[in-house]
Amino acid sequence: MSVLQRFEKRLEGMFEGAFAKMFKGVVHPVEVASAMQREAEAHKAILAGGRTLVPNRYVIDLSAGDHDRLAPYAAALAQELAQSQAEYIGEHGWTVYGDVIVEVERGDGLDTGMFRVTAEVSTGDGSQPPGGPGFGPPQGGDQGYGPPQPPMGTPAGAKLISGDGRQYAVAMGQTTIGRGEQAQIRLPDVGISRRHARVDYDGQQVLVTDLGSTNGTMVNGQRITTVSIRPGDVIQLGTTSLTLHLDS
Fold this sequence. Notes:
- With 248 residues, the protein is an alpha+beta fold.
């Protein structure tokens, strides 16, 4: 079953048989979802290491009549569209900044049955990613998603290195890894939960704990709950690999 078919099936279940009647004569959600997929395809950008960055914020402009008619269901529809788009992005192994967000708004100059999709890369805090507005991906070795330099007070030599060479400091104490804004190490990978795993470091020993993530955490190919790791061990979260390095 395709992403669009799963999306339509979820909507039919949500609206309990009123799906066809509700969207008759107005913008059909599957058409919107398909247009969002095309926007992602059209605005792909290649990051360092060969990863593909696509937009994560989509604004759907509807005609005044369509917007008023669908207003009671706008929040639920936006959530389902966001889930469908995240699934589509994940199936292709693409990268996004933070969560996929969909907003349904009233657009100007649109007739009934027409809509407009605007897509952009958003960091989630109102700022644009490195490279300016639009779809500019991180450029260069030290720019990118997540903190590339050790913060103040971090013990020297404790770090996680991704497959594309990015370095993330492991602070003394606890460091949360995830896709959400509250994670200390944020990774733009739709296969990673907002709070995916935790690294505990006491200056000598490093422990990795899965935080009940959807897809689990692997160390050296084995799914783990909590495990002690050593230099050279590989943590796998989603499609991202992180290798522990400790300098003496």
